Design the sequence.
């Protein structure tokens, strides 16, 4: 049974300097929590009290994060993760709908995660673009959020889809097992 109750919310943002991802905190991150919670200088600022030398052991870390994660969404802040976007267009119409887009997205995704070690891929398309939607979904992308657009006849929403390297490698592993 896990110590930290996790969730599936992933949020992205950036400053002038950093790309920031808020990832669901889970047991995989316990070694980081052990390290931070053993550091008196970190605890001086995060905990009340006068003790400047306090340091929490693993059991205390389990109690603190086990309890708080039951009632709150806990995130790990990942800074400077490598987020890239795929944009695509086949200009020759007679080549649409022949599987080429699906294949080149598959190739780019593999390149991004296995060679470039990208953390997150994302893409943006509008609701009327069924081919784009299908191509990205076939390659494991899922809806991250949608944005309402000023109404026009052909579209109402902009879809933001994403795929993390973790999701990619899990999907690959599951595919091989089946
Ligand atoms: C978007 C684009 C790159 C996709 O590449 P493609 O080679 O045409 O796509 P594929 O043939 O690999 O796949 C298209 C999928 O959409 C499906 N599809 C096509 N029309 C559809 C529709 N009206 N509703 C739902 N699905 C549809 C196809 O059946 C296919 O899925 P399948 O393989 O499961 O059968 C290409 O069509 C293109 O460049 N279009 C013009 C520019 C553009 O739209 N760029 C994207 C801007 S965001």
Sequence:
């Amino acid at each position: 049974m896990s110590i930290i109750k996790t969730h599936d919310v992933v949020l992205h943002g950036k400053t002038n300097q950093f790309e920031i991802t808020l990832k669901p905190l889970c047991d995989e991150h316990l070694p980081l929590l052990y390290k931070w919670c053993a550091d008196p200088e970190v605890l001086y600022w995060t905990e009340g009290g006068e003790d400047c030398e306090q340091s929490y052991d693993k059991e205390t870390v389990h109690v603190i994060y086990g309890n708080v994660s039951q009632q709150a969404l806990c995130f790990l802040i990942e800074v400077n993760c490598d987020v890239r976007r795929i944009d695509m267009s086949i200009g020759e119409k007679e080549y649409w709908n022949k599987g080429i887009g699906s294949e080149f997205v598959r190739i780019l995704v593999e390149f991004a995660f296995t060679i470039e070690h990208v953390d997150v891929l994302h893409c943006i398309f509008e609701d009327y673009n069924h081919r784009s939607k299908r191509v990205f979904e076939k390659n494991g992308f899922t809806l991250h959020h949608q944005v309402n657009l000023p109404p026009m006849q052909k579209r109402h929403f902009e879809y933001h889809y994403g795929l993390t390297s973790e999701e990619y490698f899990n999907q690959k592993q599951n595919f091989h097992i089946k």
